Amino acid sequence: MTKMKDYKPAEKMYVYDKIPLEEIGAKLNISRRTLFYWKKKYEWDRKRFEAERNQEIFSEELLEFARTLMQKISKDIDNKTPTSQSEIYSLMKILKNISQVKQYENSNQKSKQSKPTGQLTPEIIEQIEREVLGLNL
Prior knowledge:
- Helix 4 runs antiparallel to helix 5 (85-114).
- Among the domains are: 1-42; 55-99.
- It is 74% helix and 0% strand.
- By secondary structure, it is mainly alpha-helical.
């Protein structure tokens, strides 16, 4: 059970940091077999998908809120109505974070594009060995 102390860091690295299992194994000195077992048993792929989707939803909501706030401030300016400092402050904070959201989206797009399609990855090979050939590594 001593391996379980590395479970949470390994899960975080895979799900949120998107680090390949081979790198996680090397960094934490955990066997591939253990990592594949954890990945399957604890549904790391589903968790990764949900985390990515939640980030996308947050990004969309943040951008929509920024647009709405900018429109309100713009109307206030056009109508020569004072705009509250909290609205201006909020917009400035959002605009600072939009660059981080864009960086996340761009890195996410690059990682999706850089993944080779139609090639056998170590994960696929292990799955074939396990499910088709009946080998347990």
